[in-house]
Amino acid sequence: MPRLSGEPLLVLTAAHCFKFGDEQKHVKVQIDDGQGREKKVINFRLHPKYNITAKKDKGVLEFYDYDVALIQLEEYVQISSSVRPICIPCTQETSDALQLVGVSTCKQQEELLLKNDIERVSFLTKRTESLVVEKDAHVKLGGLRDNCIKHALTAPNITATDPKVAVTDNFLCTGGLDPFRDHLACKGDSGGAVFKDYEQRTIQVALVSWGTKNLCQLRSVNVESDQTSRDFHINLFRVVDFLKEILGDDTQNVYSTLEFLKD
Q1: Does the N-terminal or the C-terminal CB of the chain have fewer CB atoms within 10 Å?
Q2: 190 tagged catalytic
Q3: Most distant CA atoms of the chain, gap in Å
Q4: Is the model's pLDDT at 1 over the cut of 50?
Q5: What is the per-residue pLDDT across 131-149, written as a single tens digit (0 to 9) for each?
Q6: What is the H or E stretch that residue 97 is in?
Q7: Pairing verdict, β 69-76 and 41-46
Q8: For the chain, how many structural domains are there in total?
Q9: Which of 33, 67, 182, 189 is catalytic?
Q10: What residues does 210 pair with on adjacent strands?
């Protein structure tokens, strides 16, 4: 998230991390930056289209489309090797990181970062107060996506017969054993960055939203998928308007804005 010296941090997370009626005083953000773990929150905003009960009558008890939110912290955060900003899609800053010369577009970035039917991504899992591990998974795109998302129908509280009712085009799908055995996200990983490393820069392409199975009861460091377990992640390329409205808002002077691409 954007930050320069002397500016507060904005944290990108999942909307379902909040409860109905939450106020700023109810929200806690813990960042181990050496200046006190718990940070005060000035404001937070959920995507306006997020509605967990929107498809309850269609066989999806909990619907996680547009599961994205932004938190604005009151206090500064000390940037270090373990606490640092991340590039997000459809900004000039990310085009620079991707070494796209001249006038670039959002579509160019997406085609570069998510161009293959199988794309390796990473996410972080916190195992203890001091242990955070990086995990790998593989997004199934193109002709492989339908076979990936069909396993959404095995999730508890889903009685729909069409997986696309629960898994819209706003989600990336990971998990399973083919062609690689993926790691799985656990409860508590929600809202975390799903990212790719490109030319020594880290680009966030999605955020962890929900999954079909809880295989993390033992809290193993490396929780791996089985044949039908799947994780679904909000594709940031599909929620750019929400990100731009806040992170590209140059009418405020509280934090530095990002330069979003026109297309």
Answers
A1: C
A2: yes
A3: 51
A4: no
A5: 788 999 999 999 999 999 9
A6: helix 92-97
A7: antiparallel
A8: 1
A9: 67
A10: 232
